[in-house]
Amino acid sequence: MFGAVQLGVLAACVVLFVPMGMAGWHLSRNKMLFFSGALFITLAVGVHLSPYFPSFSHFLMSPAATVVLGDSRGSCLSLLHDIVWDVKPARLMRPFSNTDGNTNGSSKSSPYYRELSWSWARSKSVLECDFQKVRSSDASDLLNGSWVVVAGDSQARLVVLSLLNLVLDSDQMESVKSDLFKRHSDYGIMIARIGLKLDFIWAPYVSNLTDLMLRFRQNVNLPDVLIMGSGLWHMLHVSNASDYGVSLQKLSSSLVSSLPYSRELGNDGPVTGSAPIRSQHLFWLGMPNLINSMLNTEEKREKMNNLAFYLYNMELHKSRILRQAGGHFLLLDIHSLTQSCGPQCTEDGMHYDGAVYNAAVQIVLNALLIESNQKL
């Protein structure tokens, strides 16, 4: 008994050669018509045979066989952290006189300062993305009418400081700093000029972030931009990467139940194939590069070592919070920024020069431009 493939081939031969043989003599004097007819019949045979070769049919119908033009957003997001630093040697600050006549150097503990600047790499792929350092006026326009929440530890507070430095003038910043840096406290500001509401939530543990997401869910209100991250306090005071991983899993579950879902893909919650509506922009604030020898206490040097950082970072990626792993949050990779800047950019091995957090804010703003299809 012939199989399905053999029958298909036999039928194809009949369809192809019998009509061609019968028509060949009549068409032999018109080669254009002859080959047109042959091409048509060959295509018909191909369609006839395709069900018997599923791999070929799959290739024709697969998305990979389709050329997609013009959508480079994903690749550009992955290049946002391709930053190079220009760190000039430390110089002695020029002394200045106070009103009482006393001569002082820098307000920092050291009278020396570094000239620190950064730019995006000049590779072809980065240049094609056309990243830009967003100016104060453009940042104000981009964030106009938005609610921005930054939640986490001292790293998150420094991100808030850089964002405020961008949208406020120097006089306003003087009044802001004393309130922003109140120890272990929240901070909020409404910038009426641009309708920007900015909240900093002191949340040093992942459990604090989970509670915050549950509050958002109860209030049925999510910020337009949410930047959050945690890990340093857990590493120092709990020192258990597995426990950190469990906390991240709980946070991930709270995210699934708190984020709105597309009606097209299912609005009843976390069902297979559902996806969060991208009206919210979510960023996970990664931990900085920890330079163990520069940490300022013995406890920190003992507990916050390279192995601990590696284990905690592994738990973060296993938790699937990050977009790269199928989660919702785009990683704001502070570790990459601080590692490339190096020891000359920090005094305590954990908190870095303001330029690092300025770069982080610029990455966030460029990501907002990319995801909202805007250009300056």
Give the SSE layout:
Layout lengths: L3 H24 L3 H19 L4 H8 L11 H6 L4 E10 L3 E2 L5 E2 L7 E9 L3 H6 L6 H7 L4 E6 L1 H14 L2 H11 L6 E5 L4 E7 L3 H14 L5 E4 L3 H6 L3 H18 L22 E5 L12 H6 L2 H13 L11 E3 L1 H8 L12 H18 L5
Parallel strand pairs: 5-7, 5-8, 8-9, 9-10
Antiparallel strand pairs: 1-4, 2-3, 6-7
How would you describe what is shown here?
This protein is α/β, with parallel strands linked by helices and 376 residues long. The chain is built from 15 helices and ten strands. It has a six-stranded mixed sheet with strand order 6-7-5-8-9-10, sandwiched between helices. A two-stranded antiparallel sheet has the order 1-4. 26% of the residues are buried. Mean pLDDT is 79; it is low at 27-36, 52-70, 94-109 and 261-278. Its main location: membrane. The chain crosses the membrane at residues 33-53. It is found in: Membrane.
Class from helix and strand fractions: alpha/beta
Percent helix range: 40-55%
Instruction: Note the overall shape.
Output: globular
**What is the number of strand segments?**
10
Unreliable segments of 5+ consecutive residues: 27-36, 52-70, 94-109, 261-278
Mind describing the biggest β-sheet? 6 strands, mixed
Along the chain, the helix and strand elements come as HHHHEEEEHHEHHEEHEHHEHHEHH
End-to-end distance, in Å? 70 Å
Question: Mean of the pLDDT scores?
Answer: 79
- Strand neighbour order, sheet with most strands: 6-7-5-8-9-10
Count of helical stretches:
15
* Portion in strands: 5-15%
**Rg for CA atoms:** 30 Å
Protein name: Protein ALTERED XYLOGLUCAN 9-like
Keywords: Membrane, Transmembrane, Transmembrane helix
Transmembrane segments: 33-53
Subcellular location: Membrane
